[in-house]
Amino acid sequence: MPGQALLPADLTVVVPCYNEVLNVRPMVDALSAALSAWRWEVVFVDDHSPDGTAQLVRDIALTDSRVRVIERIGRRGLSSAVIEGVLSSAAPIVAVMDGDLQHDESVLPRMAARIRDGEADLVVASRHVEGGDNAGLAGRWRHMLSDAGIRLAQTLLPCRLTDPMSGFFAVRRSVFAAAVPRLAGSGFKILLELALTVPRETRIEEMAATFRPRLAGESKLSPLVMLQFLGMLAERICGNWLPLRFIVFALVGLVGIVVNIGAMNGARLSGLSFEHAQLVGTICAIFANFQLNNRLTYHDRRLKGRRWWPGFLVFLLGCGLGNIANIGVAQMLFDANGYWTRSSAAGAVIGVVWNYAVASTLVWR
Predict the structure, then answer these.
(1) Which of 29, 153, 170, 256 sits in a 20 to 30 Å window from 288, CA-based?
(2) What is the DSSP string of 222-261?
């Protein structure tokens, strides 16, 4: 019977997903049609979607042994989902696709064939080579985010890739497995991290593909995703000696400064004294930082429901102590050397490190 073969798969398709219940069955049908000449399987890696994505995959798996699901509880993120999906496979070739049907599965057999035939180790489905198309990106804003990300990524890549932001690629599993110990597994752009990690002799090719419009569900691309992407680039620029989570935490802190200044000025215009306006600005900044860190920096440990308020109170107290340490260190250094700029910068660094330590050990443990 179709889907009941006991032979091992030649190709595993890993699909990281969240709230894609309407796209699961159409995707299985599309893969069945495109990969009719292959022994294949698909692994949906679901981050505990509330819409029942994982359960639907299980229902399909009851009648089709080519379909599997890994449901992750308490862990989130596309890159880490891809890593878990690939490591669950024994197939010599692994492909990664989004779960929203925007990737053109019809090019997948040719991508996998290049690896099977020994012509390439990593094949990227590109929207930006001749014959490719990115018309599926909805709206001018998404086009701008994507193009900016591509230009930034290309400045770091040791090889030529027209679409390093692609989420659709095929790779020799042994190549991926060898790179895993050096992958951070954070963020949403696993291909870029992989291309920056594999040895220079890895044979990388691109193949034209169409990025189709989404038919159901909602896009996961947002400014917050791009902020996390910038953090990953910064980590690479720093030679990986600063963890991505700390870099994103620091970037969120910069956003908090903007919120602080805006809220303080607004409070001043409403007639509050400088001291009270400063207090309003500080509280608004701490609240904004907490929310952004909860949704972005610690997205895989996000606090919800009854855990939100205790976490916020600990964060508020920790940041208050961090501000005291910031001022104290800055004052001590200023008294010693008289350089207010250096003293203030040193105090700010101490404050950021302190707040990060509190956040990582007490709030988002």
Answers:
(1) 153
(2) -HHHHHHHHHHHHHHHTTT-S-HHHHHHHHHHHHHHHHHH
